[in-house]
Each structure stands twice: as C-alpha cells, then as structure tokens.
Amino acid sequence: MKIRRFFAKTWPLWLSFWLPLLIMTGYFIYRQMAPFGSSSLLTVDLGQQYVDLFAYFRHTLLHDPSAFFYSFSKTIGGEMVGVWAYYLMSPFNLIYLFFPGQSLTTGIFIVTILKYGFAGLAFAWLLTKTHMQRGWLVPTFSTAYALMGWMVANQLNMIWLDTVAILPMVILGLERLLTTGKVRYFAGWLAVMLIDNYYMGYMVVLFSCLYWLYGVTKHWQDFKTLCQHALKFAWGGLLAAVLSAWLLLPTVWALLQSKAQYNVTKVHWKFEYAPWKMLAKFVTGTFNFDQMPSGQPNFYVAWFAVFAFILFFLRRRFHWTVKLSALVVTAVLVLSFCYEPLDLLWHAGQFPVWYPYRFSFVFSFWLVWLGAQALSEHLTIKLWQALTMLVLAVGCFTTIYLNLKHVKYVLEPNLMITIGLAAVTLIFLILPKQNQVIYRIVALLLVSVDMSINAVASLNNLSYVSQAEFGKYTSVLDQTVNQIKAHGGSGFYRIGKTFTRTKDDPMQAAYNGADHFSSTFESIIPNFFGSIGQPDGDGVVAYTNGTLISDSFLDMQYFMDKKVPQAQAANADYRKYIPVTSTKPDVQNYQAAKQMSNSQVTTYKNPYALGLGFGASNQITKLKVSKTTGDPIARQELIYQTLADRNPSALITAENFDQVIFQNVKKVTTLTGSVLNKQDLGKTGSIYFKFTPQTNDSYYLTLGENLTTSNASYYINGKELKQYPTYRHTIAVNVAANSKGKTITFGIQMKKTSLWLQNFTLYRLNNAQFKQSAKKLQRAPWQLSHHSSRKLTGTINIQQSHQVLMTTIPYSKGWHATVDGHAVKTKRAINTFIAVPLSKGHHTVTLTYRPPFLALGSAISGVAALGTIGWFGVKHRRKRRIRL
C-alpha cells in the first residue's frame, strides 16, 4: 500500500527521468554506439581530450591519490587541481571506476544517458516543489528541458552537462529564499555547482543575479522585504563561495598561470552578427560540425514550450511588473547572444575556442520555465492569443526562409518539418478539450516527438570514433606502457613515441610523457616547447619533433616506435588505429629493448637521457633564451652546452643542399626566406632538395610556421613526411641519421601558387660532441630513492663548484625544496624549470609540491562548514526550547 502511494505521488518524477533517458538510449542504439555496436560516443573533444582524462580519473582514485594535486602525465609535469575543478569533479565520474581500458566508452555511454535523465528529473522536481505543474504536464515540460538544443549540441562536452541538472535546484533554492527567507538551499546547491564545474557555475551565478531581479518582482511585498532578500541573496552567494573555497582558491591560482593569460584586453562595442540569425535556431536540426567552431547559440526547445513562453506575456493573471521584469531578463539574454561585451562577460573575458555561446542553456531554461508557469492544465488558449502566436511564428519562419542562403545550417526539409510541428502544436492548443488526461498525454507525446526529431536531425550530422579505432589503439598503448613499466625498473623516467591518438595519451595510459591538451595548461610549457621546435598552441603541446638534444635533456629514457606490418592488406587498418605523427630516424641511435616491445610497437632505450635532475653549471640560471630570434636547433644547442659548461657553438652547423630541383617553379638562388612561385598556375609545382651526408650524424630541417600541410605536402625519399599537422612556431624535422653516403631527398609539392620558405634551414648535429656533453652531464645524477606525483627525494654528488641541481620539472611556486633537511629557495632556469643551488659535495634533496592556496581555501571552507552546522544547531535548540 505504501509503495502504491509512493508511486502515485512520484510517477511524474520517474517519468521525467526515464523518458529523456530512453529516448536518447534508443537513438544511441540505432547509431550502434558501444556497447550496442561498432561505434562510440567519442567525437571532437570527448574523443580527443575528455576520455583520456576520465582514464586518468580512474588511475588517480584507484592507484595514485597524490595525482589529484600534481601529475607528470600532464606534459612534463603540471598542477592538477585546476584540471580536476574544470574536468573531473562530477560525481557521475565515479561510474568510470567500473570500466577500465577500452570499455571506458561503455561508461561514457551510461554517464551520458544518466545526465539526460537527471536533467529531466531536476526540472520536474522544481515544477513539483514550486507547484507550477502536476501530473502529465510535469514530464512534458521536463522533457522539453532535458532534450534542449544546447544539451544535444554539447553532449560531446559532457563535463558541462551536470549544469543542466543542477541549475533547476539552484533556482528552487532562490525561490525558497524569496518565499521563506531560507538561504541554505540556494547556498548549498550553488556551492555544489561551483565545485562540480566552476566555469559553468560562473554562468549560473550570472543567471542567478538576473533571476533574482525577476524573482523579487514576482514575490514583491514591500521595500523592506526587498532589502532583506538582497542581503540574503548576497549572503547565500558568499556562503556558496566560501564552502567551495578549498577548490576555488587553488583553481584561481592555476588559472592565473594558464587560461587567464589569454583574456581579451580590448572590447569591441559591436554586434557580432545580424541578430535575426538567432531565429534560425528555432528550427529543428540546426546543429552540425560547422556550428562548433563558430555559429549561433543552441537553444532549441519544443514548440509547445515556445508557445507557452509567449503565452506568459499574454496571460492577464501575471502582473504587468512581473511581465516587464521577465521581458528585461529575456532581452538581456538575447542581447548577450549577439552583443560582444555581454558575450565576453558570460565567458569570463575570453572568447570561447570553439563551442560559442556556451551559456545558452540558461535561455532554454528560461523559455521552458516561464512557459510552465503560463500554461494551465486545461491546455486551451484563447483565439486572440493563438492569432498572436501565429503572427509571431509566421514572421519567424518567413524571415528564415527568405534568408536561407545566409543560414546554411538550416536545411529546407528541416524548416518544413518545424513549420509542421509548430502548426500541429498551435492547433492542439486551440482545440477545446473534453478529456483532459488524454490531451495531456498527447501533449507529452507531441513534445517527445518534437525533441526526438531535433536530437536525431542534429546528431546525425556528426561522425564518431569507431569502437575498434579507440579500443585497438588503447590496447596497444596500454600493453606497451605496461611492458616498459614491468622491465624498466621503479625509477622515474619519461616515455616518448612516434605515434599519437590524442595529446593526452600519457593520461590515458598513466605514464610520464610530454604531450598534453587542456584548458588549464600553464603557459610556460607551450612557450618553452614552441621555442625548441615542438608543435604547441594555447593549452596544447605535442612532443613529436624531439632531437637527440631535447630527448636527452627532457629525460626521454624510452621511445615507442610503430612497426610497419608485413602484409600490405593490414597496412591500411594499422595506420587507421595507430596514426604516425613523427618522422624520427634518430631512434637508430638508441637501443632496441626486446622485452619492452611487441608485434605492433618497438621500444627503444635512450642511453643519453639525463634523468629528472642532474648537476649542471649555475650559468643556466642566468641564461636568457630569446623567443623571437634564432631558431629551435640553435636554442637547444645553447641550452645544452650551457648546462654542460662547454663551447656553445660546438654541436650544430648549418649545411647546404647538394642539389635543388625546381619543377614548374621559378628558380631562386637563396633558399631560406625566399618566396617560391609557380610558373604554370594550372600545374603542380614541386621542389626537391638533395644532400648526401658525409657522416652518420643526425640531420634536422627547420620549417617555419608558414610551411604547414595547408600550404604544401612534404616527402622524404618519396615517402610522405609524418608530422603532427598544426604548429605555430618553427619546428625541427629529423630527416636523416646513420645515413653516411646515402642521398636524402626532401620534396615539397605546393598546394598554392606561392610558398614562403620560412626558416627553411638544414642542420647537422655533431653526434660525437653531443655524446661528450651528455656524458659530462650524466656524471652527477639526482638518484631518486622515492618519487610520487608530489614528492621526490634523492641524493646527488656535486663534483664541481658553481653548480646547481637542474631539473626538468616546470617551475611553480607550489614546489618547495629542502637540501639535507634545510629549506632552500628554488630558482627558475630558462624561464621554465626548477633549479636548486647546491654546494660541492654529497646532498639529499627533496622536492615537495603543495598546491598554492589549498591550505587557505580548506581552512576557509572548514570554518564556513563548521559555522553553518553550528548555526543550525543553535536554531534547532531554540525551536526545541520554544516547543517545551
């Protein structure tokens, strides 16, 4: 009996949870997403970034909790609190603990559909607790909300999806604050939002401010009450901030080292596009790949909810002041979608890199929420209201149709379908209704069909990574890394590779690497990597162009190199799931390690690796390496020779090509810096640069940032150059090693009418001199006796005066050093790395990482939590005394 009563009261909530979940599950099964087929949900950032971070989440919780604070899987080392705060604090991520390796895609499937379900449940809870709707209309509006256009467009950004479930709870807390004066619900849920994802939480805070303006008008009593509500609203926001300070304060510090350095400093007071283009987003299926980097905001909701929203302003039961405040909030949100200063405000002073107008979920919430308040259970509107809606809809669709060529993401069939859905919905609202229950069920079906069509039409425009592509690569990577760990000893070492699926492969397989991609990436690392010839960008580095020098310096003790399959039939599939991104003849200078190799990958051991730390000349702390002059090979030589206290110009020499052949290209006498022009614009222009090494030394060719694959194709001895495709600085390509007497031909095929040979120079590394420098630097290694993600202890014997312990740990104020038990101040070397001053002799050096402001933030949150608990305890006792 109790169970029946429970379900009789809660069935709208259950239906609100299960309906969007089952709709999306059905679609994913239709698309054969793992575990139901050969595809996966991985696409764009979900496939290139998040899935690896989810694997790292598993590794941290199950194997290395200290990696919550710092990780050497984040390129050559980096803070992790900021990464966790942005990517990994969702409680849904705990589900990934049950899905290791290639099965992680199944975990992503489950988490994704659950987030759809909880979004519907949260909105239904808001409707129920505020008594705005009941019965069948609860799942009707909650389904329109859970399957909104923003949700569908951003399911690949699943780290943001929790927001859609938490926002209704924050608004419920605001409603309770305005009706009962209780702050705890608002403060509590806002704190949850800030901890779950501070970035989206910031947007929720801005929307809460707008909603408060509407709410105080809606619940207006008098001026005194308004002041009380204002103070309680401010107190609630402050309490939420201090309760989450343990995470927010170290995150703010991390942002100051990374993302905050790219803030826009000049604001243009202008419209970003013609505002009428937003109307196109009321058409179903108006999301595709082209809308990801730039486009209009995604806020599609069912036309049932749109008409209900319009009805809010046509119903007489809402006071004109309430309508006016709602109109102001609507105007601010709409203006934010097209007016640059407001757009920047919502994005915290930065234009988004892809996925514009990320805050459009609040507009979808606003549409559905006002609509739910306006449409009564009778589901019938008056004729004049219907005519008003008809005029607005006709105006909207006419504008879109007349401008189809300007909104290419709108397909004419989709426009016709949308017009049909809107027409059916409007007719449904006009019809008199005898059996209210049946019509409410019809309304639910109408919304479900509408939102399902939008989901299918939008997601069908995207392609996904196959399960085999992800699974095979992950298995090979895990297998090889585990072999290295099993036979490479327990010491610290970094691993490089000549192939890449994503820049976060080190996090996927939990090894110390040199690649990384995240939005909270310290800027000093991309700056350094770009200066030594590695592809880099804002928030990304790919260590694909390592030289003997950089491999040695950065402690790349092992290198994983792909094997070419014997059978040509297997070659295509092999290249598909193990993409080669590095041409590296230098591996011939390393030692093949059979025990660490397998049928797909050969692992090499680098005998010249210097270790994480080593004794070096203290001149390295005074070295100024220019970022704007010179080239990456010259910088590497200067750094390495300064460390070894040897002649800075003894390692490299510039070489000339023996022969240059121009085919359909006008000849030039000077290569570097020249502009090549085709002779016949209708034919292919090619240039072949030939040289024959007279030694077995390593040869490197520098290519300026203009020499990318968009401008030309590149070949070494007729084979396509394997190179990571995007870079913004000059890179160094390894073109030969152990090739004495063999002719090397570097070919360029122009894709355009002209080509600038920017920073195009051939260099020879004197391998004998390099080995001497490496041997000298290896004399005083930092021999680690203990190492974890945030603490390293080891001994070092400094044999000469004027030396330091040079490490390749990125400099950070979070690192603290002790020498022989005494605290010492670290120095910054090459503007990038930690160096510890040492005197001659034997020393024990310990480096410990403590996230800046973590202790302060934890203390603030702890005091706030204890104070809040104590306050409630006092109130509870007072109530008991009054009762007695």
What do these coordinates show?
The chain is of the alpha+beta class. A hairpin with a 3-residue loop joins strand 22 and strand 23 (791-798). Helices cover 45% and strands 15% of the residues. Helix 5 packs antiparallel against helix 15. The strands form eight sheets. It has a five-stranded antiparallel beta sheet with strand order 12-14-19-16-17, with no helix packed on it. A five-stranded antiparallel beta sheet has the order 22-23-29-25-26, with no helix packed on it. A four-stranded mixed beta sheet has the order 3-7-9-8. It folds into four domains: 2-459, no CATH class; 467-609, no CATH class; 653-765, Galactose-binding domain-like (Jelly Rolls), CATH 2.60.120.260; 773-852, Immunoglobulin-like, CATH 2.60.40.
Quick overview:
The chain has 884 residues and is an alpha+beta fold. β22 (783-787) and β23 (791-798) form a beta hairpin.
